[in-house]
Structure formats: C-alpha cells, structure tokens
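Dear colleague,

Thank you for sharing your sequence with our group. We've completed the structure prediction you requested, and as agreed, I am returning the results in plain text so they can be pasted directly into your records. Please verify that the sequence below matches your submission; if there's any discrepancy, let me know and we will rerun it promptly.
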Amino acid sequence: MRLEEANALGERDFVARFGGVFEHSPWVAQRAWKKRPFRSADALHDAMMEAVVQAKNDERLALVRAHPELAGAEAKAGSLSADSSSEQGRLGFLRLTSEELQEMARLNKRYRERHGFPCIVALRLHAARASVMEEMKRRLANDSLTEMKNALEQIAHITRGRLERMVDG
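Please find the predicted structure tokens below.
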C-alpha cells in the first residue's frame, strides 16, 4: 500500500489494515490514526510508538503479554498470527527437535516466572536461532524494569519490519 492510500483511510479501515502490526493490540493503530497525515512510513511507525509510550502502564504490559513465546503454546497449537508464524518460522522455531523444544520451554518458563511476561526478541535482527537463545539466557539476569524497556525496544524493531512490508514510502 502506498503511504498516500494509508493516509486517506478512515479510522475503521486504517485500524483494520494496521491493527495487527502490534500483536493483538489494535488500539495502537487507532491512536496513531489521529496523527495523520504521515509524511513517511517512519513517521507512521513513530506515531504508533508514541501511542505505546503514552499508554498507561497496564496497556503497555498487556501489549507485551500479547506477544507469543518463542516456540511456545501458540506455535504448538498453530494459533500464531501470520506475522509471528513467518518470523518464528524463518529461524526454525516452528520445527525444533524435542530437545530444543524442552530447552525453549525451560527458557520461556524461567523468563516468564522472573518477569511476568514473555521474552520478546526481534527475530529479524538475528541470523540464527542460537543467537536468540543466547540473548534469552543473558536477559534472564536483568531486572523486570530493564526487561520491560528491552521488550518495548524489541517490539519497535518487530513492528518496523512489519510496516516495511505493508507500506511503500
């Protein structure tokens, strides 16, 4: 979609088109719509991230919790969003060996128990699954405030990549 077309969308159509950019959180697109017109795809992403930054703490926590765990229950059930499925599939998280699945389950469980939300990693920044798993292990030592900040930074990378595939300009 061209940027001019995105700018011309009414609120309902804009949210229908961009509401999935932030995992199961159409409120981000709804709030960003009010900042139209966008001069670039970067400006659109900036408006969306501004909506996240200005959101209440419980809304940001819900946004982070809306993301699936890597190779987690949603992946096993086949209920990942199309974007998440593509992102996890690229690095092979949807076809792990039973040993790798057990390791991921341990990492996901430890991280969630420590921080109260899933470990968010922008897979587009990684060339291999091993570096993702190493990052998860490293981040386990962080405090939860730091990890919330990290999660939001990773979400920014994830959503920027999603918008790049959706909007020209």
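Summary note from our side: The two ends are 9 Å apart (CA to CA).

Kind regards,
the structure core
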